[in-house]
Amino acid sequence: MVYLCLVLLHIFLSIVQIHSAPRESLITKLPGFSGTIPSKHYAGYVTVDENHGRNLYYYFVESQANPSKDPVVLWLNGGPACSSFDGFIYEHGPFNFIKSKTKGALPTLQLNPYSWSKVSNIIYLDSPAGTGFSYSKNVSDYKTGDIKTASDTHTFLLKWFELYPEFLANPLFIAGESYAGVYVPTLADKIVQGIEAGTKPKLNFKGYMVGNPVTDDIFDGNALVPFAHGMGLISDQIFEDVTKDCRGKFYESDSLDCSHQLSKVDKVLKKVNVYDILEPCYHGGEKEENQKSNSKLPLSFRQLGKTDRPMAVRKRMYGRAWPYKISVKDGIVPTWPQLTSNNIYTPCTDDEVSVIWLNNRDVQKAIHTVEESVVEEWVLCTGDEVTYTHDTGSMIPYHKNLTSKGYRALVYSGDHDMCVPYTGTEAWTRSIGYKIVDEWRSWSVNDQVAGFIQGYANNFTFLTVKGSGHTVPEYKPQEALYFYQHFINGLPI
């Protein structure tokens, strides 16, 4: 009898451990979606600073395959201070959001066949505080930077796994794009430091991936002019003149002649969509659409590669358009004339679908956000509220340190992005100096070339996605799911 009681107790404790996710965080319905949610969704807050009342909001999607075994992936969008609902709504979340024909009405949600939750558990996090639904009761916390953000996100993960201990043994990866090219390696560094110091709970961290990532001022800043020339956007003469007068240094103009030539380049590129040179640009909210098609994409882009995911464009503040500097007061203040000094306007895009859905009170109740008195309005990218300082410098030493310790890294680039051009990313990945173990070659999906890849020693890989812009999973969802699934499972691409 005693033995039987012990067996039953063990079974009971096992069940409790397996199902220990906080029930109050479970999402049971989502306005705009009429079907059955394909896996369990949870959302809520983790307090990362009790004294200040600093709280980070997360939305957690369990894997649709095998949540108890599949990797847990933390997704971070860029900005800085852009909500990770960007990734959830427009890129690789469980749903496609279909804009309503009635102005201001909720979008319709349909299942996304290329959701990353098909193969992994994924946490969408609003970071730092002041971003999206994350907030602090002490407004001084809205003055932040890379170091504080990495520390807070590390604290978030430690506390999140205390809430969801059943996932602690799962492999953990971190992923993000654009300014998350800074978020991800700095966070990974904090995680590794914690593991080495014996911090509990011990995270089962395996590696990270970054897309079109902000990395290094010089490599990123010098990439746009050669990229624009290679893509046929500026003439040979303009390229020769700007290269001569700037002496090949385009990141910061150090002479009047150089500034003059850079202004000429800007004038030529002024109306080109910086996030995808093939996509139409939306000026002042007026859509310049192809009159012969309902698609938002020009015929030339549609023919490059079809996507089963509806394209939705929106306002973004990914920040690092060329050339750029970091300001303590306003976060990123590009000198490119397309962007204003307070960084509120970003050319060519708008965020209507996400703004309508996430500012609906029924939606906010369903996904467990705070009351309006705390977060008055959800915006995709925070403007003046968050003062952000880039205080960690180049990310190249971080990548070298992490990969030298055995952590896997995938760096991917949509090859038609002009905000963080693949040419700069290819150059800095090569500059690390690792031995090439998989020489430049194409990779394919459905027997079609999807991009190109080069593998280095220490599990460090650079990959391009053919025909994609700044946010790869939005432009090329099928291809993105393919390389994502292969990377997190340690399979060759």
Based on CA inertia axes, which overall geometry fits?
Answer: globular
Quickly give the structural class: alpha/beta
The overall pLDDT, averaged over residues, is: 85
Distance between the termini: 55 Å
Proportion in helices = 25-40%
Q: What oligomeric arrangement do these chains adopt? A: single chain
SS elements, strand count: 18
Describe the main β-sheet briefly: 12 strands, mixed
- Whole-number radius of gyration? 22 Å
Measured by DSSP, the beta-strand proportion falls in: 15-25%
Description:
The protein is α/β, with parallel strands linked by helices and 493 residues long. It has a domain at 219-349. It has helices at 2-18, 85-91, 146-163, 180-197, 217-221, 224-230, 236-246, 256-269, 299-304, 352-358, 361-366, 396-404, 422-431, 472-475, 477-488, and strands spanning 26-27, 41-49, 54-61, 72-76, 95-98, 108-111, 121-125, 135-136, 143-145, 172-177, 205-211, 326-327, 331-332, 387-389, 408-414, 436-445, 448-456, 460-465. The strands form 4 sheets. Strands 1, 2, 3, 4, 7, 8, 10, 11, 15, 16, 17 and 18 form a 12-stranded mixed sheet that branches. β10 (172-177), α4 and β11 (205-211) form a beta-alpha-beta unit. The longest helix has 18 residues, at 146-163. It is globular. The N and C termini lie far apart (55 Å). 48% of the residues are buried. Residues 11-18 and 283-346 have low confidence and may be disordered.
